[in-house]
Amino acid sequence: MESLRRNKIWSLCAITLLSLPLIPASGTVYAQQGSNVIIACVANNGSLRYVDHASECRNREEVVQWNIRGPRGPEGDRGPAGPNGAPGAAGAQGPKGDTGAAGPQGPTGAQGPKGDTGATGAAGPQGPAGPQGDTGATGAQGPAGAQGAKGDTGAQGPQGEIGAAGAQGPAGAAGPQGEQGPARSARCAGTCR
Question: What 8-state DSSP symbol labels residue 4?
Fold first, then answer.
């Protein structure tokens, strides 16, 4: 009979343990605050009540107690990976870190497309004159140009000096005999010519 009674009590304890997750957190279930042991009093009729100390059980009640948390069980199999969660909000920008050491120079990239022609810059200062180059070969003569317009008549120059007398020329041929003149007047008296 005593064995039957104990079996009944332990059955009630097992049922109570399974129902612990349903007990409100505000209920007085634990023997002491911060303790890992639950204390209860079980009557002959199977009723169970929780107490803070074993001394609170009556003469016809049996004290039962059990740990709130048992030993840790073996680790279970890894479950399947859950779906990716929604991306979180961007966090605040952190402080600027120290400048790192310069990395090795990378390979030269491909030449990019030709850019647009920029605006013409300001003219720079004139550079010094370079040395004179060699004389180039004579080029071919070009075609004669068109005759220009006649220029204005220039001013008359000064009279030149009288030239030396020329040599006497040969005597000319005798001319024809002239007509006979009028008779001399007595008045001429040999003076008329």
Answer: H
The model's pTM is 0.26
Q: CA 177 → CA 53, 76, 172, 180, 182, distances in Å?
A: 203, 178, 15, 9, 15
Measured CA to CA, the distance from residue 124 to residue 17 in angstroms comes to 97
Q: What distance in Å separates the CA atoms of residue 89 and residue 50, rounded to the nearest whole number?
A: 48
Distance from C-alpha of 107 to C-alpha of 113, rounded to nearest angstrom: 18
d(CA 35, CA 57): 19
Number of H helices, E strands in the chain: 1, 3
Helix (H), strand (E) at residue 56: none
pLDDT tens, position by position, 123-141: 989 989 889 988 888 988 8
